[in-house]
């Protein structure tokens, strides 16, 4: 069955939102050497996503493409990056997910390596838990999954699928790679991304001090 045509006006609006956030994240140094991928669900059938190999601080609408939920390009000569499969996996698994942001900050990359053998980072007692949708108190624990890196996207997707049982995990790390964070829309995904980045920075400092 052919994939339905997408709404070009809707695409333009999604592309504008992606460009705004990617420029801000690039300015923070979280997308080095063209790293990172960013997407917004446009409909049950389509997502707008950044193409690979582009400086995320200088994106234009021409650097955003549309894929279907099987990760196939729609009405474009561009090919999606291999990591686009991790975005569409989240959209298929959790229909409420509306945007996915993937960055490579030093905190995210280092934390993924340090905690790879544990398979998670257990976050405790942070006031910033309240930035994560569904959390209302610091008096809890949040596990951020860490999965092993792989160039085999099927294997990597399977590793992610195995640790994600509910959408309100809101993020996971790939060891030595970076963070995937998501939300109902791109602004919520960005809030979750920023919150995880802050808490990871704190965890690394506590570990350096010998507290964790």
From TrEMBL:
What pathway annotation does it carry?
Answer: Amino-acid biosynthesis; L-methionine biosynthesis via salvage pathway; L-methionine from S-methyl-5-thio-alpha-D-ribose 1-phosphate: step 2/6
The highest taxon in the source lineage is Bacteria
The protein's GO terms of the molecular function aspect are: methylthioribulose 1-phosphate dehydratase activity; zinc ion binding
Q: Which GO terms describe its cellular component?
A: cytoplasm
What is an annotated GO biological process for this record, any one?
Answer: L-methionine salvage from methylthioadenosine
Q: Where is Zn(2+) annotated to bind?
A: 102, 104
What broad class of enzyme is this? lyase
Q: What is its EC number?
A: 4.2.1.109
Every Class II aldolase/adducin N-terminal domain range: 16-204
Q: Which InterPro entries match?
A: Aldolase_II/adducin_N, Aldolase_II/adducin_N_sf, MethylthioRu-1-P_deHdtase_MtnB
Q: Which reaction does it catalyse?
A: 5-(methylsulfanyl)-D-ribulose 1-phosphate = 5-methylsulfanyl-2,3-dioxopentyl phosphate + H2O
Cofactor (UniProt): Zn(2+)
Query: How many and how are cofactors bound here?
Result: Binds 1 zinc ion per subunit.
User: What's in the keyword line of the UniProt record?
Assistant: Amino-acid biosynthesis, Lyase, Metal-binding, Methionine biosynthesis, Zinc
For this chain, the family text in UniProt reads: Belongs to the aldolase class II family. MtnB subfamily.
* NCBIfam families from the UniProt entry: PRK09220.1 (NF006672), salvage_mtnB (TIGR03328)
**What job does the chain carry out?**
Catalyzes the dehydration of methylthioribulose-1-phosphate (MTRu-1-P) into 2,3-diketo-5-methylthiopentyl-1-phosphate (DK-MTP-1-P).
Entry protein name: Methylthioribulose-1-phosphate dehydratase
Q: Which gene encodes it?
A: mtnB
